[in-house]
Amino acid sequence: MTSLLDTPLVRPGIGQGLKDVFHRRYLLKLLVRKEIKLRYRGSVLGVIWSYVKPAIQFVVFYIAMGVFLGLNRNVGNYAVYLFSGIVLINFFTEALNNAAKSIVYNSGLIKKIFLPRELFPVASVFVSAAHFFPQLVVLLIGCLLTGWQPTPLGVLAGFAGFLVLAMLSVGLGLFFSSVNVYFRDSENFVEMMLMVATWVSPVMYQWTMVHERLGDFWFAVYQANPVTVGVELFHYAFWSTTSGGDAALAAPPQLFELWLPVALVVSAAVLALGQFTFRRLEVKFAQEL
Question: Where are the domains positioned within the chain?
């Protein structure tokens, strides 16, 4: 029998980062359930709000960009093109916005007990994913009604686009949730950054318009943004094989050979930076909160 003297001492409050989230998956599941119940508590429409917001956003963007600016005449099946981008960018904006506030919003729980603090931003991303999948079902229905022909490469592209933005959301969520404990105005910075990301990414327009105006060098800088690559992958997956879609216009040259690996590397680097920053700052969370 091993005695207490043979047990190595472990410094209290020091964990293994995201590994602890995996080891305590049951706590993650409880947090996700709690967040979903709290979000719709006292709500008349409940989960239907997951459909109302993207629907209104789609109508506004379609009228503004499709009808007034004429993109629906220049882009075949513009409705599917627009909605496929909106679905993914909404997942990213909701996930990062909620993850950045997660530590401050759960300050009461953090000050009372110790548990892996990474659970809170990661749970926010999972809750956003739970809202993402019903919208994805609506997108799939729209694609099927417009002659969508799924291909193995297209399915892989859709999964890769979601994976890129999920990794980026967790990394940025870890970074800004920890910084937000010390500097509360970082929430405003995140909201401003998400507004820019929505308009800079090719959600409402095609990448060819960017290339024509920026040239090769600045277009390469533009393509290094993982959000841009994720949206283009979704367009390739869901719009390119529908009636009016065009695979050549959905994906810029070397999307899979170059830009997808670049997006994965950048997202992984952001994830590592977010984890490093979070672990350095979490030691004083309870005092600062």
Answer: 16-35+45-288
